[in-house]
Amino acid sequence: MLRSFFMAALALVWGSSSALSLTSEEIIAKLRAAGYSHIQELPAGKIKTYKAVKEGTARSLIVDSTGHIAEVAR
Fold it and tell me: How far is CA 14 from CA 7, 17, 28, 37, 43, in A?
């Protein structure tokens, strides 16, 4: 499970060595616009990770520097 998370995170940030271009507030707004609620940012270094609820189901998310949202399989 943890390995899958890190592999997905690496795939999202591969080739991007710069800092995230979106602020936390912008990412949260983007997540809300995508239908997520109860959004919590989780500390994870340079990779932005979140927990949120969508359609009544808790989900783990990672967001890349372009704002692409990926759900992490649990």
Answer: 10, 8, 22, 28, 19
